[in-house]
Write a structure and sequence with these properties.
two-stranded parallel sheet, about 375 residues, Alkane 1-monooxygenase 2, cell membrane, about 60% helix, iron
Length: about 375
């Protein structure tokens, strides 16, 4: 691995190192400000998450220091804390604003539509990103906080899909989330919405079958997912009636859209080599797009160091390592800009397709026929 500057354990433990990852908390007052003032202020949330952080990225550039991997768990308290407290913060914000705008009636329908679009942006950009981190951890409290965050956007099955399918089968035909070469986001999005819940349920049912248990056994987490999501929907109706339900569902859809935009970017066009008979090479750093932009990694708790996350899924986000272009493919910009580009397929293909072709030449010069990889028609992994 290329040698980047190493941040010592003593520095990692200092609260000042963790503080930038708490910038997401500044989005909470913006949400309430938009709810109270209305008008153009309802757009502050997407403006901040998409454009402000992109501007800081452009000015600040990349961050290429790596944490000392021997940093003990107790030195990561302030990093872990933001992910744990976000669930109650988001819950109070989401349902508090839902109560406020439906009870006060001072916002027009268009203003409420715009406001909950913005809330969906943060419940997807921040909430699901933090849920992703929490669902990878062993402590029950963290996993519960992750489940609660996912229930708030009606996407609880993501935990099963991500842990049991995506990490095992990424960059193979069995992973619905791996975007195929030349597959535009507008085709990708409905495909993953259709395939992911089925894939997640089958993975959980298969695990139960290996224990000689039926799919409907009480240990199937889909029962918990259903109960949590039903609880969220019921609360939305009790607080805001049918309008409250509609606004809640709208923010959930926007959150899911934000998640799948990121999923689309993270692995677009990258594939693991088929070794024959349904066997694929092990996951390596070059099977995910890497990005080291400073501000967007603060916002997304190092999610853009995605090459290392797939290489070592059990690493907590402050310890994720970055790579240079000889070890992992690099995105030209951070996720905020790349997800905006993904919404414009001609722009996306112009930016990313040459990079995918260069990646193929760099890592797999021996592969002459890429058609089965592009169409995801290689044999399913064993």
């Amino acid at each position: 691995m290329t040698s980047f500057p190493i941040v010592s354990q003593s520095k990692m433990a200092h609260i000042s190192r963790a503080a930038p990852f708490w910038l997401s908390a500044a989005l909470i007052p913006l949400a309430w400000f938009g709810a109270i003032v209305g008008g153009w202020t309802v757009l502050l949330l997407p403006v901040a998450t998409w454009y402000l952080f992109s501007a800081i990225d452009a000015l600040a550039g990349t961050y290429e220091e790596n944490a000392d991997l021997e940093t003990p768990e107790e030195d990561l308290f302030w990093y872990r804390a933001i992910t744990i407290v976000w669930a109650p913060l988001q819950f109070i914000t989401l349902f508090g604003i839902l109560w406020y705008v439906t009870a006060s009636g001072h916002l027009s329908g268009l203003e409420m539509f715009g406001l909950f679009f913005g809330i969906g942006v943060i419940s997807g950009t921040i909430g699901i990103t933090y849920a992703h981190e929490l669902c990878h951890q062993r402590p029950k409290l963290e996993r519960w906080m992750g489940d609660i965050l996912l229930a708030m956007v009606l996407y609880s099955h993501f935990r099963s899909e991500h842990l049991l399918v995506h990490h095992r089968y990424v960059a193979t035909p069995r992973d619905p989330v791996t975007a195929r070469y030349n597959e535009g986001f507008h085709r990708y999005f409905p495909r993953v919405l259709r395939q992911q819940p089925v894939s997640a349920f089958k993975a959980e049912a298969a695990m139960l079958a290996r224990k000689k248990l039926p799919w409907h056994d009480r240990s199937n987490p889909f029962w918990k997912y259903a109960a949590l999501q039903l609880g969220m929907l019921t609360l939305a109706v009790l607080i805001g009636g049918w309008i409250g339900l509609g606004l809640f569902a709208w923010q959930a859809f926007i959150a899911i859209w934000q998640l799948e935009l990121v999923n689309y970017v993270e692995h677009y066009g990258l594939t693991r080599k088929h070794l024959g008979d349904g066997k694929y090479e092990h996951v390596k750093p070059h099977h995910s797009w890497n990005a080291s932009q400073l501000a967007s990694n603060w916002l997304l708790i190092n999610l853009q160091r995605h090459s290392d996350h797939h290489y070592k899924p059990d690493r907590r986000f402050p310890l994720l390592q970055t790579y240079d272009q000889n070890e992992a493919p690099q995105l030209p910009y951070g996720y905020p800009i790349m997800t905006m580009a993904a919404m414009m397929p001609p722009v996306w293909r112009r930016v990313m397709n040459p990079r995918v072709r260069a990646w193929r030449k760099q890592y797999y010069p021996e592969i002459e026929d890429w058609a089965p990889y592009k169409a995801a028609t290689n044999p399913m992994p064993r």
